[in-house]
Design goal:
Layout: E1 25-29, E2 33-35, E3 41-51, H1 53-60, E4 64-72, E5 77-83, E6 88-92, E7 99-109, E8 113-116, H2 124-127, E9 132-134, E10 139-142, E11 146-150, E12 166-171, E13 178-182, E14 185-193, E15 196-197, H3 198-204, H4 209-229, H5 238-247, H6 255-266
Parallel strand pairs: 12-14
Antiparallel strand pairs: 1-3, 2-3, 3-6, 4-5, 4-7, 7-10, 7-11, 8-9, 13-14, 14-15
Length: 284
């Protein structure tokens, strides 16, 4: 059987379907993309899902490592970030990027290996009893590629494109609006049923953001402000809320001030750093 070869050894990648068994995969996973206070671009929690005994063993034995490569053709920017045993935030400078940015993961060999055999999950039709002399930094796997577009906006008065905190999520399992406050943010769950589609009503108000905020977000924003003031919650995203609390000099017993501050926060011409309007299904 003939095949097209890109590398002198097996590589796990979506465009190399014949190198590994069909149940093997290497995929990139990540959280949200946003800007930090220094106006750097942050890609949260970059990690991977790997299904390959051969490659997992190499990683466990520290004979290979996972790196994230970020590329921008418009600026010729390229950089790599090592992903160890836990998700990693990738931080990028605005002035190095423009247009389309791509990023993916690769598994690279950490040292030379002589007569190495991929014994567990490579395609036996091509690689049974085959051994390879591998060199340090040889590519062993390539993940799927993710893309986003970006135009530099590093101006003194530019509003930070903050990580979203309030999310609106449809649910066919509930009959009433519910919410959850957790490490990832504040989640508003709306019924999404044929005979009770509150989520559809929320969508239909997209052209009237102030009214939608008043109906769906206002009470929850107040509750979050109070819980932060009472030190009942403390997550990474509450830092932005504390800034608005300090800005409006809020005290936990002054409910009128909290009521007025909530209106100012939600009705800013530019969305406040911590209360961007809930987006459809986590903006996916």
């Amino acid at each position: 059987m003939s095949r097209i070869t890109y590398f002198p050894h097996p590589v796990l990648a979506t465009f190399l379907n014949n190198d590994y068994n069909s149940d093997c995969q290497f995929e990139i996973i990540h959280g949200e993309r946003h800007e930090n206070e220094e106006r750097q671009i942050v890609i949260d929690n970059v990690f991977y899902e790997l299904k390959s005994k051969s490659l997992k063993k190499l990683l466990d034995d520290k004979l290979a490592q996972v790196v994230c490569e970020v590329r921008c053709a418009a600026t010729l920017f390229s950089d790599t970030f090592i992903i160890n045993d836990a998700p990693k935030d990738i931080i990028l400078k605005q002035n190095e990027l423009r247009g389309t940015i791509e990023f993916d993961l690769k598994i690279l060999l950490s040292e030379n290996l002589k007569n190495f055999m991929f014994e567990d999950d490579t395609n036996e039709t091509f690689y049974k009893n085959e051994s390879f002399d591998l060199q340090k930094n040889d590519i062993l796997a390539i993940s799927n590629t993710k893309k986003f577009t970006f135009e530099p906006r590093n101006l003194p008065d530019a509003e930070i494109q903050a990580k979203e905190i309030f999310h609106c999520v449809p649910s066919s399992e509930i009959d009433e609006i519910t919410y959850d406050i957790e490490k990832r943010g504040v989640f508003i769950y709306l019924p999404d049923k044929t005979n009770n589609n509150i989520y559809l009503e929320w969508q239909n108000l997209s052209s009237k953001p102030n009214l939608r905020n008043l109906l769906f977000n206002f009470p929850l924003v107040q509750r979050v402000l109070l819980r932060v003031l009472n030190e009942e919650i403390n997550y990474s995203w509450t830092k932005a809320i504390k800034k608005d609390i300090d800005k409006h000099d809020l005290q936990k017993d002054n409910h009128k001030a909290i009521f007025k501050a909530t209106q100012k926060i939600m009705n800013k011409k530019n969305k406040a750093s911590f209360i961007r309007a809930a987006k459809e299904a986590l903006n996916k």
